[in-house]
Structure formats: C-alpha cells, structure tokens
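subagent[fold] <- orchestrator: predict structure for attached chain, return tokens only, no commentary.
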Amino acid sequence: MTEQIFWVILSSASPVFELRAGIPLGVLVFHLNPFWVFIVAVLSNFLIVPFLILFLKHFSEFFMHRFYFFNRLLNYIFLKTRDHHAHKFEKWEHWALLGLVAIPLPFTGAWTGALAAFLFDIPMKRALAVIFLGLVIAGIIVSGLTVFGNGALIGVK
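subagent[fold] -> orchestrator:
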C-alpha cells in the first residue's frame, strides 16, 4: 500500500500529470479510498508550489544579474507577457489564476498557476491561497469524474 501511495504522490506532484493522473491512478488502478486519494493528491500537488515560485524568482534573479543575454531575454518575456495579458489579469487576477488551476485540462494546474503567479508578480500568500483553492476544485472535479464516470462505464458494459 505504501508503494501505491508513493505512486499517487509522485504522479500528483509531477508537472505534466498532476492530480489529473494521481486521482484516477489511486482510485481505478490501486483501488484506494477515493477520499484519501483526493487528500494525498491535492496536498502532494500543492506542496511543490511554494518551492517552484521561489525557485523561479531566484533562478531569474541569478541569471539576470550574471548574464546580459538572460537579462535581456527575461525582461523581454516579462514585458511581452505582462503587456499582452496584464489588462486581463489586473481585472480578473484571482479568478484568472483560479480558473487556470481549477480547470483540469492539459497545461493547466498548480505548475502553470505557479508560473503565472511568478510572471504577474502576484504576492506569495495570495498566490498560494488561490492555487490551493483551485487544486481543491480540480480535485473534486477529477474525483467526481473518476468515481462516477467509472461507475457509468461499468453500467454500460
């Protein structure tokens, strides 16, 4: 059972799969309790976020101060991103970040939310709260689809 939980944690914390894979893996493949799989998947997906935001900040500062090329490149990326999307993000800041994390689609989730929070310079506490809420919503959606969707598929057979 510990090996199964390890795989749920690993898949939930990974940048590509996140809890969209961790929950179905735990419930459908390993036949674990959906409630506990939800808790483990959300927490393991969330625990990487503060480290990711801090890493992005320190990484960008380190390279911007040491290498002229990276300074120009990262400034260009920040200016272009903020210039194109700042008006939307200023108006819908929390809702945009929440939607980015809560909708369980490819290239959305906690990792993308952390990147967006970094790019738009959202304060850490606010970003963490919104990302956590988004993960809870995404976890509820994925858990519901996993539990009830699997039941519907079994009923069709």
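orchestrator: received. Logging for downstream: The mean pLDDT is 89. The helical segments are 2-13, 19-29, 34-46, 49-66, 68-102, 110-119, 124-156.
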